[in-house]
Amino acid sequence: MSEEINNAPNGTESVSPHATNFIRNIIDEDLASGKHTTVVTRFPPEPNGYLHVGHAKAICLDFGLAQDYKGTCHLRMDDTNPGKEETEYINAIKEDVKWLGFDWGEKVYSASDYFDKLYEYAERLIMKGDAYVDDSSAEEIRLSRGTLNEPGKNSPYRDRSIEENLDLFRRMKAGEFPDGAKVLRAKIDMADPNIVMRDPTLYRIRHQSHPHTGDKWCIYPMYDFTHCLSDSIEGITHSLCTLEFENNRPLYDWVLEHVGVECRPRQIEFSRLNLESVIVSKRKLLQLVKEHYVNGWDDPRMPTIAGMRRRGYTPEAIKLFCDRIGISKAESWISYSIFEQAVRDDLNTKVPRVMGVLRPLKLVIDNYPEDLTEEFEAPFFPDDPPKMGHRMLKFTKEIYIDRDDFMENPVPKFFRLSPGKEVRLRRAYIIKCEYVVKDEHGNITEVHCSYDPASKGGNAPDGRKIKGTLHWVSAKESVPCEVRLYDRLFAVDHPATNPDVNFIDELNPNSLEVLTEARVEKSLEGVEAGKWFQFERTGYFYTDKDTTPERPVFNRVVTLKDTWAKIMQGAK
Ligand code: ATP
Ligand code: MG
Fold this sequence. Notes:
By secondary structure, this protein is an alpha/beta fold. It has 14 helices and 29 strands.
């Protein structure tokens, strides 16, 4: 993995967005030699699902390079599969690319825009004797393709005359033949060591309407024919794709050369993003949505850009992550913690600190006056108080702390609250646990404490050492809310890689925990959807779109690291 991580061994150093890579070197050479005077790239999604974090890597590369070199990047819907593409997906793709902060200007295209041109190019190949109509079935073609060790066999239809091929191809277009009756194939070499080059199919018959071209066509071009020619038509200079297309590059070049187009873009492959405990396959993500393993494409556990947005990940964090992992040709798995660290590093200086109690436990301060409400000034951003201002924390006799912060029988090194022990309530007072109240099942329902009135602000008057600092909210001066905690969607590091296991069985059954009793401090009353906060000691949170004026819903974006180090610093 280290090869993928530019200058960031622990994922915390930020890397210049201009960190060089082998693709930049190629572009630099092409500009220096005068081969190109500008850079034109494209991002070519197939609109058959929502974009995911893997696409984000490709988007950052395609659009990012164009931005840096003051070139352009086209958005092109790769819609050669009729029927599959849906408007919902096309709209989502546009929204996601925009949200990441990229702009295609006027340059939004569809491969289907080029169907006329592509048909012309196909006739051109036929007329040059470089393509033929084959009546073999799909199965026959597959069987005659050979293997890595054996050459393929020529089709019995391979030597048809140009006239016959042209006539048949035109009749294919005219709808004279049923689906699968014929295909158009490139005439290359059935003995080529690269199987992709063994007379690949260029066109197939599909009597199916297309979302863009309607019923105009009943033959549709294949990816390998469409992609390179679309690149050429658009004047793409560098066509970047993932490594699985490496074997297709000779075909990419062959088609451009044999059709005889002037503009010959260069295909360059890079390694795809594999993120641990994440699946990046639209087909599998679609299955999770369709079969209700998640709550839609924008479920905050999904690695889709829509899901990441709803969860509260920021475009800046995603871009920072993409910069850090860099671009290479080495296949690897990236630890999810590298991603999470980028999220923390982005949110750290942007987001106000507040107090929220996830699993409330009532705490009564017996020697505190019944009706008193004190206010403590607390900066939203202790590292730089003027930056975000402050709010007043309301302190009352009854407060809530998190259940995790109390242990009746503490384990060693538990510095939080337990009977007879003292802790600091952040920015308020030092308290001591006197006794607990339990229900008939033995569950603790209340913790009773005393407070040290001389410790106002949380400082011990005699300098005695108080190890633990707890976050809290006032019982009556706080806002009930819902908190959604997320864990990895898959319980294994490399989901969907074991052929003997159904990836559905690899789902993490505890990926979502909904806390309905949570409470946040009063200053968050009426908070709108789409806001970020750091809840002290428990993580970064983002208000979900399910938020109502009465009841905020918080998604935990990511947990905090070094929780204790930070809180101890803040308590000084
Ligand atoms: P999926 O397997 O999820 O359907 P795909 O490659 O078929 O992915 P496309 O819509 O064809 O999806 O992809 C558009 C672009 O995004 C392509 O250039 C592709 O190489 C790139 N891309 C897709 N997945 C990844 C990934 N995991 N990492 C980097 N780039 C990716
Ligand atoms: Mg694809």
